């Protein structure tokens, strides 16, 4: 099993044994995230798993023990689905007295091993390879770094084969095989310097350990003596008898807690503890910890890394132009690599990580700028739109466009008349009117005789778009006959599908709206000039590319209802032009949002009753723990029974949850939309963007479990009509009423303000979709939450691109090589 997953299993198992009291690691599980994230990336763990772990464990401390159990079990189930080896039983380690396998004993180098090996043949990239990291081997790199590892003393053919499992085949690979975490032994206090009342961490060796009953056998006490050579410290754990099986005399551990006194002696009661390496106890420095494989020990690998890194890192030639490096205040590459492996201090380590993270974001930005340039070098059909015609179309709308919609439309008109394919992201808050802008864009293309395709992630959203486009483009004031606008989804009858396909071929169908069914092979357009993709994060790169290939060089408009902070949007979507609709349509009232205590739930029910009596509808949402659908569905079903039988016996309730089949979910949603249900009891599988104007109440149970982005999306399901709407947030327990996210929701209806706060609080996971899977594994040092670093790298990339887009200047030659390697090693198209 990969080391990062093995670490999770160890901590999750210990949490279970501890009764989910958040003591499996010193300071709580959230403390492990910083080092675990980089370790997981070096292990090649998928980005969706990494983000799931970061989000769930980031808020772990605020959960109840029962909720913590659900979170950990759900996470492990999800990990097991993607990495089946994680579900296998772990084989027992060899006895402590057993000698190390012969394959890791230092071997005398052979004459053959001392000769430099020829450069290895091309191979697929693996985690940790130099070729997959910015600053990998270039023409200026010492040729010796291409030598195989058998040139090292102590590395024979068997060692080399074992190290290849870590992606280590050449000396150059070792330079970029960064530690997954560090143990900082440089700031520890010896036991003899401790005094009463301190909160400290100390390390030492367990001298003795025993357990005994206390209070007449009603409780259990486990006691240990910890020594570090300067003094001894008594440790005591109450009612935790399992510790007897976890610790043994001779174990080296780090313990953390408050120093107290008992009978004149210092003691730590119920301290957190974690095993450490005995050989690291007296190193008095920051010690790197590397990912391992079988038959390789940490001490041996660290020695090999030290031998290679300390000699070769200073001999590297930096690929980053000196002007960029100095302007950004970065370490030279060689120094950064040396400090990333064997840091002299925490400050040096942070400076090294900053340099290596800058490279990754910088390379990412250079790549998307190049993609944007390449896309704009293609010619596309020009659509000249007479001002009077466009004004007439706008005047014919049943409502007035907002200034933000007007600005977005003007951006699009410029794109359509440029002669280059439009490549624009239309970002707008829930209910801001993106669909109207898309429909007007389609009307321009259709009026000129060409075709437009609109792709939505679900059938119910596709049907909603079909109704809206039909109302806006057909009818009395429309420019198209109704048969020119068609719908194509999975449930479309075969005879109708055939009719649609024929209409596309002969050009009579001008606007086709649908789901993934649009991508099927039989669907061929005669003149596709516009592709519109709604909720674009729900589609992969390949699906968007597939839709594009239905035309020669169609204009592309992608839309998202997730408010993304501008810094993040420009990083993730730097190849797209950005239009933001940041104001709501006229007459739309802000949703009145309130945080209620759990004991105030009856107030929420009273409001729902009054709204239903007035002819309105309501949502009641329960938290969805993605990895634990069975538990979550059962909770929703139980509450549905209680609500329908005890609370609202006179009303019609519908139920929607993740265990239902897609067709069942769509049927329930349709019936709610059509007014057959007064209340929809649901998990968060309620679709983004589904329009139910008659719904005026959104009650969210367990609201403290959600991020701001998700809460804002849920709130966006109501307030879509002219009536005053309400969002009521009820956390799991009284203490969570003051939760920062919940209070932020009550204070602001602005999705962009909330998105900035969500980025700061929870990281970028809320904003990442399928799009990122192509390159996220290339980011080993960078964090998408480091807005300052992102802005710096993006700014310097733009400046360099403006000066030398093709990197043809002599001082940029090495950067061009490294950039080519970064983008050719599986990073791929990100648009």
Cα distance spanning the termini: 33 Å
Could you name the ranges where pLDDT drops below 50 across 5 or more consecutive residues? 90-132, 625-634, 768-778, 826-831
- Name given to the CATH homologous superfamily of the largest domain: P-loop containing nucleotide triphosphate hydrolases
CATH topological fold name of the largest domain? Rossmann fold
**How many individual domains?**
5
Instruction: Determine and state the CATH class of the largest domain.
Output: Alpha Beta
What is the number of E strands? Answer: 21
CATH architecture of the largest domain: 3-Layer(aba) Sandwich
Helical content band: 25-40%
Q: Shape from CA axes?
A: globular
The spatial strand order of the largest sheet comes to 11-12-10-13-14-9-15
What count of helical segments does DSSP give?
Answer: 27
User: What is the multimeric organization of the chains shown?
Assistant: single chain
Mean pLDDT figure: 81
Over the alpha carbons, how many angstroms does the gyration radius reach? 30 Å
Class computed from helices, strands and strand pairing: alpha/beta
User: Main sheet?
Assistant: 7 strands, parallel
Describe the 3D structure:
With 831 residues, the protein is α/β, with parallel strands linked by helices. It has 5 domains: 3-87, no CATH class; 111-178 and 292-317, no CATH class; 187-280, Beta Barrel (OB fold (Dihydrolipoamide Acetyltransferase, E2P)), CATH 2.40.50.140; 387-418 and 432-560, Rossmann fold (3-Layer(aba) Sandwich); 592-748, P-loop containing nucleotide triphosphate hydrolases (Rossmann fold). Strands 11-12-10-13-14-9-15 form a 7-stranded parallel β-sheet, sandwiched between helices. Helix 11 (333-341) packs across helix 12. Mean pLDDT is 81; it is low at 90-132, 625-634, 768-778 and 826-831.
């Amino acid at each position: 099993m990969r080391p990062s997953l093995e670490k999770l299993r160890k901590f999750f198992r210990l949490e279970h044994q501890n009764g989910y009291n958040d003591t499996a690691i010193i300071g709580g599980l959230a403390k492990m995230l910083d080092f675990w994230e980089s370790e997981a990336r070096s292990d090649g763990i998928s980005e969706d798993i990494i983000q799931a772990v970061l989000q769930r464990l980031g808020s772990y401390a605020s959960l109840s023990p029962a909720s913590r159990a659900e979170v950990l079990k759900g996470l492990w189930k999800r990990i097991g689905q993607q990495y089946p080896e994680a579900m296998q039983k772990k084989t027992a380690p060899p006895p402590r007295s057993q000698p190390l396998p012969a394959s890791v004993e230092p071997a005398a180098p052979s004459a053959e091993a001392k000769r430099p090996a020829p450069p290895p043949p091309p191979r697929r990239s693996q985690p940790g390879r130099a070729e997959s990291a910015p600053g990998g081997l270039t023409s200026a790199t010492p040729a010796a770094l291409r030598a195989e590892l058998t040139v090292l003393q102590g590395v024979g053919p068997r060692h080399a084969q074992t190290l290849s499992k870590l992606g280590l085949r050449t000396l150059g690979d070792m330079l970029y095989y960064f530690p997954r975490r560090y143990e900082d032994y440089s700031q520890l206090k010896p036991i003899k310097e401790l005094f009463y009342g301190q909160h400290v961490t100390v390390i030492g060796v367990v001298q003795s350990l025993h357990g005994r009953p206390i209070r007449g056998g009603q409780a259990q006490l486990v006691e240990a003596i910890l020594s570090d050579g300067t003094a001894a410290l008594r440790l005591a754990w109450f009612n935790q008898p399992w510790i007897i099986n976890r610790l043994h005399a001779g174990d080296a551990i780090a313990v953390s807690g408050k120093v107290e006194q008992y009978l004149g002696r210092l003691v730590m009661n119920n301290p957190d503890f974690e095993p450490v390496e005995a050989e690291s106890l007296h190193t008095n420095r920051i010690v790197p910890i590397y990912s391992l494989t079988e038959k390789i020990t940490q001490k041996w690998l660290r020695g090999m890394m030290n031998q290679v890194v300390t000699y070769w890192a200073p001999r590297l030639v930096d690929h980053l132009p000196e002007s960029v490096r100095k302007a950004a205040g970065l370490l030279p590459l060689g120094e950064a690599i040396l400090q990333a492996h064997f840091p002299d201090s925490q400050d040096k380590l942070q400076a090294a990580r900053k340099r290596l993270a800058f490279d990754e974001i910088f390379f990412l930005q250079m790549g998307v700028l190049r993609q944007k340039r390449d896309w704009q070098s293609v010619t596309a059909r020009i659509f000249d739109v007479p001002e009077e015609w466009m004004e007439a179309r706008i005047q014919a709308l049943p409502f007035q466009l907002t200034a933000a919609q007007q600005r977005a439309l003007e951006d699009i008109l410029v794109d359509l008349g440029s002669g280059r394919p439009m490549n624009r992201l239309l970002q707008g808050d829930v209910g801001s009117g993106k669909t109207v802008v898309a429909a007007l864009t389609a009307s321009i293309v259709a009026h000129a005789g060409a075709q437009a395709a609109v792709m939505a992630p679900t059938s119910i959203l596709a049907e909603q778009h079909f109704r809206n486009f039909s109302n806006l483009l057909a009818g009395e004031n429309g420019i198209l006959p109704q048969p020119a606008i068609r719908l194509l989804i999975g449930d479309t009858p075969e005879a109708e599908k055939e009719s649609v396909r024929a209409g596309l071929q002969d050009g009579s169908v001008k606007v086709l709206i649908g789901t993934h069914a649009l991508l099927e092979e039989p669907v061929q357009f005669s003149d596709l000039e516009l592709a519109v993709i709604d909720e674009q994060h729900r589609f992969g790169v390949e699906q968007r590319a597939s839709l594009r290939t239905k035309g020669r060089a169609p204009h592309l408009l992608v839309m998202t209802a997730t408010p993304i902070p501008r810094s993040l949007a420009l990083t993730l979507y730097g190849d797209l032009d950005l239009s933001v609709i940041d104001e709501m349509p006229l007459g739309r009232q802000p949703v009145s949002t309130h945080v209620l205590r759990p004991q105030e739930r009856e107030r929420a029910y009273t409001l729902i009753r009054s709204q239903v009596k007035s002819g309105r509808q309501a949502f009641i949402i329960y938290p969805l723990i993605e990895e634990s659908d069975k538990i979550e569905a059962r909770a929703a079903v139980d509450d549905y029974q209680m609500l329908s039988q005890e609370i609202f016996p006179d009303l019609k309730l519908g139920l929607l949850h993740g265990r239902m089949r897609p067709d069942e979910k769509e049927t329930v949603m349709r019936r709610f939309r059509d007014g057959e249900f007064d209340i929809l009891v649901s998990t968060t599988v309620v679709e983004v963007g589904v329009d139910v104007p008659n719904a005026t109440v959104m009650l969210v149970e367990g609201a403290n479990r959600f991020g701001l982005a998700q809460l804002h999306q849920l709130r966006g399901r109501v307030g879509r009509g002219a009536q005053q709407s309400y969002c009521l947030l009820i956390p799991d327990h009284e203490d969570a009423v003051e939760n920062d996210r919940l209070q932020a929701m009550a204070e602001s209806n602005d999705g962009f303000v909330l998105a900035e706060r969500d980025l700061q609080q929870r990281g970028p996971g809320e904003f990442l979709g399928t799009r990122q899977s192509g390159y996220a594994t290339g980011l080993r040092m960078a964090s998408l939450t480091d807005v300052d670093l992102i802005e710096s790298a993006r700014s310097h990339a733009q400046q360099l691109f403006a000066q030398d887009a093709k990197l043809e200047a002599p001082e940029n030659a090495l950067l061009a090589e490294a950039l080519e390697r970064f983008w050719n090693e599986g990073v791929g198209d990100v648009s």
